[in-house]
Design goal:
This protein is mostly helical. The chain is built from four helices and no strands. Helix 1 packs parallel to helix 4 and helix 2 packs across helix 3.
Length: 85
């Protein structure tokens, strides 16, 4: 096994940014998957992306949107079944 600090290849960096941007995946989850600290990915986003806060904010908003849609769906289903809210 090689020793030292694990690094990300250029291809891995592109994949990580794409997964955060398009899928809204969380940095801690990706850091575990790629075997690096979350700080490495946050630094990469800060240094490599033109607007890293926007990428992270977009991912967060996508997760919140999905959660809200789920809640609204449950409320709508309960209403159709005649349950009081």
């Amino acid at each position: 096994m090689p020793r030292g600090v694990p690094t990300l290849t250029a291809e891995q960096r592109q994949i990580i940014v794409k997964r955060i941007k398009e899928n809204g995946e969380r940095v801690p989850d990706l850091s575990k998957e790629y075997g690096v600290k979350a700080k490495v990915i946050y630094n990469m986003l800060r240094n490599g992306a033109s607007e890293p806060n926007t990428l992270l904010e977009l991912a967060k908003l996508k997760r919140e949107h999905e959660a809200l849609l789920s809640i609204i769906g449950k409320l709508f289903a309960d209403q159709k079944m005649g349950k009081k809210i």
